[in-house]
Amino acid sequence: MIQPKSMVRWLAMSLIASVAAVSAAPASAQSTLDTVKKRGKILCGVSPVAPGFSYADDKGVRRGFDVDICRAVSAAVFADPDKVEYVPLNTNVRFQAVQSGEVDILSRQNTWSFTRDASLGLDFGPVVFYDGQGLMAPSKLNVKSASELADAAICLLPGTTTLQNLEDFFRPKNIKYESVVFENSDEWRNAFFNGRCDAITTDRSDLASVRAIANDPSQYVVLPETISKEPLAPTIRQNDPNWRDILNWSVYTLIGAEEKGVTQANVDEFLKSEDPEVQRMLGVNGDFGKMLGLDNKWGYNIIKSVGNYGEVFDRNLGPKTRLGLTRGPNELWTKGGLLYAPPFR
Amino acid sequence: MRADAMSGTRLLYNLRFRAILYQVIAVAGIVLLGLYLFSNVSQKLAEQNIATGFGYLSREAGFVISQTLIDYKPTDTYGRAILAGIVNTVWVSAWSVVLATILGLVVGIARLSRNPLLAFLAFLYVEALRNVPLLLYLFLWYALIVTSLPSVREAWEILPHVFLSNSGLTVPSLVWTSAHTTVLLALVFGGILGVIFHRRATAERIRTGNVRALWPWIVLAVLLPPVLALLLVQPDFAVDLPEKGRFRLTGGAQLRPEFTALLVGLALSASAGIAEIVRSGILSVRKGQWEAARALGLRDGLTMRLVVLPQALRVIIPPLTSSYLSLFKNSSLAIAIGYPDLVMVSNTTMNQTGQAIEGIAIFMLVYLGLSITISVFMNWYNSRVALKER
């Protein structure tokens, strides 16, 4: 039996210990770059399973568009794209994981929105994918437009902007519908494939993933309406301007390199390029890497290891992949799209 | 007792005083730690620019919840959305408790049956349900409903205007108004009056031995309030018939597959546990009680109902309470199969507002509050059926 005296001592000690532990932990706010360098790898939050964006291939290696964004940052910081540990996060815990420092970057299909930016202690990097919410229905229902979906049941995933966008779209039209919300995306897809719902809704890029998984993709048709703007952007904690710059300019390097025609294959030749902006981008000239606290060759390292934006897109999402997406708004500004990198000067 | 017994040093050696002192210190320590953690969290959240507080509960939710018992529109507040979630949680848990108790009692008794086939079947039932995680069963029941039943467009009309499809069972319903609620309340009131009359009559009979013809009074007590209410408010008995629309059946009342799968899943898995509790309770009643009851000429069914079960209840109630509690907490698995319970609504809210700490706090408070309510009720019932030593 524990003696009363020792019990008091034990209680007092543990109390002091726990208070000390709690106050010590968050006291020192170290810069993310220092933390990452000390750790030797970047912690990157990604979607658990999203074909094209983040999935494990048959060898168990994580691949996809969102994954490549983290690999680019890793190449910038470590001159090695593979110093990344991937943390699969569902929609419910993703922002808490960034807030609490569980991940250094959240590279997931998450929408940049006002409230998230202003009230969650988060900062957003550049938009890496311009998406919009769409609806998909079985072709045998003969639905031509989302406005015909009165009284239909619609399958949704929780915890995204999806639910509110749908309501915002239908409410002014005075259309009633039934929502069936699933936590688990497998159940959500299956409920739709089994006819529990007449339509399914999510971002158009994600609809393409769902359709790609269907037994017969031709039996499903994506409806023409895009009912929302979904600018998907990587997310980091607020109040670390240096880390934010690193993320921003890693993404801009991907975009800028495509604009200049620099690819994974020809980047070595471009080191001899006469174009002063290319020289600064690839670290031949200027101290751009040093300004970020990185090696001057950071831009070269990114392109050498992951390629430019266009290559990343084509490899993961493009017409030759299972998803078969076209560039659409995700085309360079010079070709009528929305992608635009500020000048490297 | 000597005069100096209460002086400071002596007091410290007083066992009773020390026991209380330690408890006070422990509680104070925990409270202090809690306060410290709370202030620390608030400070860090403020530093990180993360919004805090429960103010968001009064903002417009802007999302649809398709199966609610209370009135809820997307233009209502987050607070009301969460309330709708709580009501859904309680609704499905309450029905599951009722179903699980009835099933558990039947299966528990069947396990002790002298018919080997029946006993074996009950044994299989219990083992199959107790040894597989509930979540898998939920997926199974849901998949069975959604894949084995036809789609709404090919819904089976099993009776006129009664449709069965993978969107659930749709039946004609009464167009409910406040007048109907009044009549229903009057009916309940009449029922209570009837019970009171009946009890008094029985007490009177036991006391005096006179059998007075009280039944007309009882019938009157039961019928008068609802009949009066009917005449007073004159409700309109309009029927809402389900009809096939382009996508869904519109109108009528619907038993949806998400609710049904959850209800069946929770009730069946809990009933297996309850069956074992019932079996142990019955086995705890000595054989002599059976023999004595038989000697009095009671048949087996009556012996079970009047002699054995009342005594077994003493053993049954405490573990039954924990079964109910875990059933209620397991209802949070609803989110896996799309039933909008508290967890689902809160998750959506947390994601739209980003206020996770508050959301989790609401969760914990609600589950804690409801769990304690169940415990308190069951403890009260337990003390009622406990063996009264005279």
TrEMBL record, chain A:
PANTHER family cross-referenced by the UniProt entry: AMINO ACID ABC TRANSPORTER PERMEASE (PTHR30085), AMINO-ACID ABC TRANSPORTER-BINDING PROTEIN YHDW-RELATED (PTHR30085:SF7)
The protein's name in its UniProt record: Amino acid ABC transporter substrate-binding protein
Annotated family: Belongs to the bacterial solute-binding protein 3 family.
InterPro entries found in the cross-reference section: Bact_solute-bind_prot3, Solute-binding_3/MltF_N
UniProtKB keywords: Signal, Transport
Region forming the signal peptide: 1-29
Organism: Microvirga terrae
Domain Solute-binding protein family 3/N-terminal: 41-274
TrEMBL record, chain B:
Main location: membrane
Alphabetic keyword roster: Amino-acid transport, Cell membrane, Membrane, Transmembrane, Transmembrane helix, Transport
Domain ABC transmembrane type-1: residue ranges: 86-378
Protein location: Cell inner membrane; Cell membrane
Record Gene3D superfamilies: MetI-like
Membrane spanning residue stretches: 20-38, 81-110, 174-197, 217-239, 259-278, 360-381
Entry-linked PROSITE patterns: ABC_TM1
Membrane topology qualifier: Multi-pass membrane protein
Record-stated family: Belongs to the binding-protein-dependent transport system permease family. HisMQ subfamily.
Annotated protein name in UniProt: ABC transporter permease subunit
Protein's organism: Microvirga terrae
Lineage: Bacteria, Pseudomonadati, Pseudomonadota, Alphaproteobacteria, Hyphomicrobiales
